[in-house]
Amino acid sequence: MTSTNLPPQPTSQDRALLRTTLLKLTAGQKILCAVVIAVVALVWYDLLNRLVEFGRGINYEGLHALGARVVTLLKEYNPFFWWAVVALCTLIIAYFLYGFVRAALNRARARHLREETVQMLATRLSEPAREVLRWSWRDPREPLTVGDLQRTAAELRNGRYAKITLARRQAALLADAPSAPAGAKDLPSV
């Protein structure tokens, strides 16, 4: 097959256009997530220092009724206890931050595209890139979403257009193939 017979492929301009469009559509959520994470991290850093300092200031001498050995053990393992509390709280905060970020990204992914954005993409994307966008659009009865564009960008990077054209060629071969005669022996699989 010569290079003139190859079907057109999505271009780097298609990928760049999708990347900049997605950046414009998701920048707000990304900035919000970064600001929230930074603020929570700063506040938690201040609080964890206060918590550790509080732990250092605890006096276990009032527990002398438990014995000198117990008081000595409490004093010795006191810093480890407070750092374990800090680690546990850090994991809990990280879990909630992760949930916040996932929810924000899911909201952004579910946001419908404005008609102007779809019009701009329809006029500036090449036909192969539009084909991948149509393939990525999960339900054409629903409006296109940011998630559909994200999937399109990922599929363009992974060579989806070549897979679509290969599937079409294979479907055409199967549709045009003559029927096997009745009683024909099964052929070995390839």
Automatic annotation (TrEMBL):
Keywords: Membrane, Transmembrane, Transmembrane helix. The keyword Transmembrane applies. The chain crosses the membrane at residues 21-45, 80-101. This is Poly-beta-1,6-N-acetyl-D-glucosamine biosynthesis protein PgaD. It comes from Pollutimonas thiosulfatoxidans.
